[in-house]
Specification:
The longest helix is centred in the C-terminal third of the chain and has 21 residues, at 251-271. The protein has three domains: 1-60, no CATH class; 68-183, Nuclear Transport Factor 2, Chain: A (Roll); 190-314, 60s Ribosomal Protein L30, Chain: A, CATH 3.30.1330. It has helices spanning 68-86, 90-93, 104-117, 175-185, 218-231, 251-271, 302-308, and strands spanning 9-11, 18-22, 28-35, 41-47, 120-121, 127-132, 136-144, 152-159, 168-173, 195-197, 203-208, 239-243, 279-283, 310-314. By secondary structure, the chain is an alpha+beta fold. Helices cover 28% and strands 25% of the residues.
């Protein structure tokens, strides 16, 4: 048994006491922890992959009166959400989320991952329930690409206020899916992905440009069409498009090029139905690189420059 060398372990969002050991074959072993009186953390339960059961006895549930009927209700919300994602329709998917918890960028980013990765849900047990409580439930969605049967996965949490309230999706953990996407689509470059964390908080979408170009590739046009679908349904939503360059060329040239990149994105979104009044642009030239443009020894780093030739789209304010 070998661990995933890139992400050997990770916490399960929404569960402070549940962790997973991520195996190289993309299966996961779940560990439920409890904190002893002396402050030590103890393993209370181990859940093996593929429903092989637990190595320790699960304590009786005394405070979680959720039933199988409630599980079906929560599952129906998640399944409807995933169907919208498969159709590359983030606007439809939006009705199943808590908008105070899930960003528009993450919705659009998930659709982009599915479109570019050509992901499909596996035929059997594509959605697994990981825990069920009266007001919260956790899920693992299992997907694959047409060229392999090896599944990828991502985690979804749902919550509701009480038994009379509707279930809503409150968390989507894409860490493992992004790793799979990077390995399959981006040639292993962990920085070359369409969804990143904004340093100021939240998520941002990223599209990339060729050297000395502000032209949108077929790939970036497909990404922006997904973004436009979402923005057209919310005329109050504002976004900022920021253009950047690598370090080749003069400061003045790069500043102009970065503005052209941002404006090109704005123009494409406008042609696809987004109100120009919703959009602001900013240009930063070669400032604020995501990764260094040069190696540690001062030599050119083409892979770094590739990542820095970009426009970032911040959808949430």
């Amino acid at each position: 048994m070998k661990l995933d060398p890139t992400t050997p372990f990770s916490s399960i969002q929404g569960l402070n006491n549940r962790w997973s050991l991520n195996l190289a074959n993309r299966n996961r072993i779940f560990l439920d922890l409890t904190k002893a009186a002396d402050g030590r953390w103890l393993v209370n339960r181990i859940t093996l992959p593929n429903h092989q059961g637990s190595l320790t006895k699960q304590p009786k549930k005394t405070t979680d009166p959720a039933t199988s009927d409630e599980e079906k209700k929560a599952a129906a919300i998640v399944q409807s959400f995933l169907a919208s994602i498969m159709q590359l329709d983030p606007a439809s998917a939006r009705q199943y989320i808590d908008p105070t918890k899930i960003s528009y960028a993450k919705l659009a980013g998930l659709c982009i991952l599915f479109e570019e990765g050509k992901y499909q849900f596996i035929e059997k047990k594509a959605l697994r329930n990981m825990f069920l409580r009266n007001t919260s439930a956790g899920w693992i969605a299992r997907i694959k690409t047409p060229d392999t049967d090896q599944p990828a996965m991502f985690a979804i949490n749902t919550k509701r206020q009480d038994a009379q309230s509707a279930w809503k999706i409150t968390e989507i953990n894409l860490n493992q899916l992004l790793t799979d996407y990077v390995n399959r689509v981006s040639g292993g470059d962990i920085h070359y992905k369409p969804l990143i964390k904004n340093p100021k908080g939240g998520d941002a979408l990223v599209i990339y440009f060729d050297l000395n170009s502000n032209q949108l590739t077929i790939r970036t046009q497909r990404q922006l069409i997904i973004v436009a679908k979402l923005l057209k349904t919310d005329a109050q939503r504002k976004l900022t498009i920021s253009g950047y360059t690598d370090a080749l060329g003069s400061d003045a040239y790069n500043l102009v090029l970065s503005e052209k990149r941002a404006r090109q994105v704005m123009l494409f979104l406008s042609k696809n139905g987004v109100n120009p009044a919703q959009m602001n642009i900013a240009s930063f030239g070669e400032a604020q690189p995501r990764v260094p443009n040069t190696s540690a020894d001062g030599s050119d780093a083409p892979e770094g420059r590739r990542v820095n030739r970009r426009a970032e789209i911040l959808l949430d304010f």
